[in-house]
Amino acid sequence: MLKKVFPILFILIFGLSACQPTAQNPESSEGSRELTIMTHDSFSISAELVSKYEAEHQVKLTFIQGGDAGSALNRLVLTSGENKQPEADILYGLDNTFLSRGLEQDLFEPYEAKNLEAIPDNFKLDPENRVTPIDFGDVCINYDKAWFADNQLELPSSLKDLANPMYRDLLVVENPATSSPGLSFLMASIAEFGETGYLDFWQSLKDNGLTVVADWETAYYTNFSGSSGKGPQPLVVSYASSPAAELIYAETELAESPTASLVAPGMCWRQIEFAGILKNTPNRDLAEDFIDFLLSREFQEDMPMQMFVYPVLPEASLPEGFVRGSQIPESVATLDSALIAEQRDLWVNDWTNLILK
User: Fold this and answer.
1) Is residue 26 part of a domain?
2) Phi, psi at residue 92, to the nearest 5°?
3) Domain containing 90 — which CATH number?
4) Do 258 and 349 sit in the same domain of this protein?
5) For the chain, what is the total number of helices (H) and then of strands (E)?
């Protein structure tokens, strides 16, 4: 998901190069058991919280960066299997676009977290509790306020508008084959235009000067004009919480964020992230404790400023700047999870053949 802090701190915790917490408490690391968590590269947690958890549970936490959410899943698929001890004890960051694949590969052991009953049912996508919902964020198009004001150009109000010649060369997106937000945006387009119409939409974007890059970090920090990169495109696929980060981590205090999100119906995709205990872990008891911790109010309230995602725990409070700078769409695009499981690889392959070849 979305994580980066401006200008240098943001790089550590907000995007695809986000730091992995390896802080250790000297009192807890010596002689402690070790719990290994594989995450996507955007995962972050405050060092103080890591140290506190290690001391309280007499465990050493080790975090492994697995790349993007899809890359982390692929890595575990290749290294896990019958009677194999997994590379990690827990996977954090499997999202709803890749969920069906993770479940089909039979990677996870069921576990009902202690606080699960407090989580709204719309986040619980696996009735067997093989994975636990932890956070969510909305993938939307972000825009550079100043650019649109200076050019006196009205904003797009739908995905279809993006093909209008007035927006030629203005949009940068991430490759859905290599990027989680890129895949989310592809799903939003399929939800909006259907399986028979989404490629026509993408062809119209290509004809209108669409720019495609490999990952979120490149799109947001090299191509987007509204970020510190000052690139050529004033429209970028990012998150509805990206403007909050721009506001909170601005070099000088701002009254409002310099960027905002397009949140009209059909323009955003809700990305839900899960954590799961990997099969054959020798540390099942430690893994259960950590899953419980991920749903604790303490961790859920740490996430917004660390990863710029929303907690799934309703009672978790949000920082004022996060609330003021981010937007929650009234409605988001959705697709049936079974349809995603059946068609995802075909959709990505057809997209690749159309846009990149």
Assistant:
1) yes
2) -115, 130
3) 3.40.190.10
4) yes
5) 14, 11
**What is residue 69's predicted lDDT score, i.e. its pLDDT?**
75
Same domain, 351 and 229: yes
Among candidate residues 307, 93, 308, 260, the one with its CA nearest the CA of residue 180: 93
Q: Verify that 333 and 197 share a domain, yes or no.
A: yes
pLDDT at 174: 95
What local confidence, expressed as pLDDT, does residue 287 receive?
Answer: 98
Q: How far is CA 315 from the centre of its chain?
A: 21
Sign of the C-alpha dihedral computed for residues 275, 280, 286 and 289 taken in this order: positive
Helix (H) or strand (E) holding 253: none
User: For 270-310, how does the pLDDT look when each residue is reduced to its tens digit (9 = 90+)?
Assistant: 999 999 999 999 999 999 999 999 999 999 999 999 998 99
- Of the CA atoms within 13 Å of residue 293, those in its CB half-sphere come to 18
Q: Tokens in use for 334?
A: 């959705």
Supply the range of the domain harboring residue 46. 9-137+271-317
C-alpha span between 312 and 112 (Å, rounded): 15
pLDDT for 72 equals 81
**How many structural domains does the chain have?**
2
Helix (H) or strand (E) holding 27: helix 26-29
Residue 3 covered by a domain: no
Together in a domain, 157 and 265: yes
